[in-house]
Amino acid sequence: MKNQTDNFRIDVDTAVRLIADHMPTYPSESVSLESARGAILRQQVVAERDQPPFDRVTMDGIAIRSSALAAGTRSFHVKGTQGAGVAAIPLEDDSNCIEIMTGALLPDDADTIVPVERIERNGDDVTLESGYEPNPGQFIHRRGSDLKTGQPLLEPGTLINAPAMAALTIAGTAMVSVARWPKIVAVSTGDELIDVGNPIELFQIRSSNDRVIAAALEQRGCTTAERACLPDDLDALRRSISTMHEHNDILILSGGVSMGKYDYVPQIMDELGVRLVFHKILQRPGLPMWFGVSAQNKPVFALPGNPVSSLVCLIRYVLPAIRASLGATLPEQQTVRLAETIHFESNLTCFMPVKLGINSDGDLRASPKPTNTSGDFVSLARTDGFVELSREQNNFTAGEPVSFYQW
Ligand code: AMP
Ligand code: MG
């Protein structure tokens, strides 16, 4: 079995394409605006009203008519006071003004605002500052000048972040159609793994991968991620993975996919009828990554156990594939320039952890921070993500543009 799969090594782009070809589309659900943050929008959102919905005053001051200014009037009688959120008080006469606040509806028969700093008040009368000439129509944000009723505000695929929340609110959307996150379980496998809070022997290690995977999912808006940690026991693994497969839409396993005696994951997948799509990618770290799809069309990602490999594979393959299945139209990577020259003597794609910084010219640059081993998780905490260095190239010069993936 293991020898058989040795022939399946593929490159990074082929792995991305094969995963995309096998990912299902997840359904939509209608949620209240309160719980929509971080979700992927599945509907178009249009303006409920003109924006602004009325001629909106943008300064505290007085509302007057410009025809009065043209006729030489400089003093006005304060007919009333009007704040935001109430109906307009009409001027009725050129000699009148309305004391008015920012956000108020402009009275129909007024067309100019004079800021409070430019007037002098004397009882119920105000006089314009000597020499001050207001521009007719000033300090009014006209109805519909930003957006007309029915115009699109947000398109399907948008991540509902803080500004999108404002757009949904302006649209008066109480319930919103978003992609429903599939149920995902992140499973660490290994006899040496002990969760925090339990005593630990010299030969054991803390299990971090399931927590890291769940955290990365949650960071991207997933509300359905669960965790588990299983020993390298063939029967126990078979039973637990079978149950988890039944109760979840996506399995993300870590560990047990290499060539060791206790690396049972590919064998168990085969027994459970999960069809192998690929095993091993021409990349470092993360070469032993395994991907398959069950008879129920559920994707199974089995990542190498080394913590750096596991996280890199998650960010490079698993998360973009899930987000694409949710309908997200967000870019998953950005282009940055290398801060230093890198030499990488291998025909594998290299995923190099980097720290982003600004150079002396004020440009964003990625400084390589190679880890000691793919188990060296500690140094990752001081990095921002990784860059992808093509396997067709061995030398990458300082200033060269490369794809960057954020943790
Ligand atoms: P494996 O892929 O199972 O051969 O594991 C490779 C290396 O990663 C071993 O040194 C494991 O102890 C380590 N490892 C596997 N799973 C985890 C985990 N959940 N948390 C931290 N380290 C792990
Ligand atoms: Mg193991």
Overall description:
It contains eight helices and 28 strands. It is elongated. The longest helix is centred in the C-terminal third of the chain and has 19 residues. It starts with a helix and ends with a strand. Strand 20 and strand 21 form a beta hairpin. A six-stranded mixed β-sheet has the order 7-4-6-5-9-8, with no helix packed on it. It has a six-stranded mixed β-sheet with strand order 16-13-17-21-20-18, with helices on both faces. The protein has 407 residues and is of the alpha/beta class. It folds into four domains: 164 residues, 3-Layer(aba) Sandwich (Molybdenum Cofactor Biosythetic Enzyme, Chain A); 42 residues, no CATH class; 86 residues, Molybdopterin biosynthesis moea protein, domain 3 (Molybdopterin biosynthesis moeA protein, domain 3, Beta Complex); 72 residues, Beta Barrel (Beta-clip). Adenosine monophosphate (AMP) binds next to helix 5. The site of adenosine monophosphate has 19 residues, from helix 5.
Overview in brief:
It is built from eight helices and 28 strands. It has helices spanning 2-5, 12-22, 66-70, 162-170, 209-219, 234-247, 265-271, 307-325, and strands at 28-32, 45-46, 56-57, 61-64, 75-82, 96-100, 112-115, 119-122, 125-128, 140-141, 152-154, 175-179, 184-189, 193-194, 205-206, 225-230, 250-254, 275-279, 283-284, 290-293, 299-303, 334-338, 342-343, 349-358, 364-368, 385-389, 395-396, 401-406.
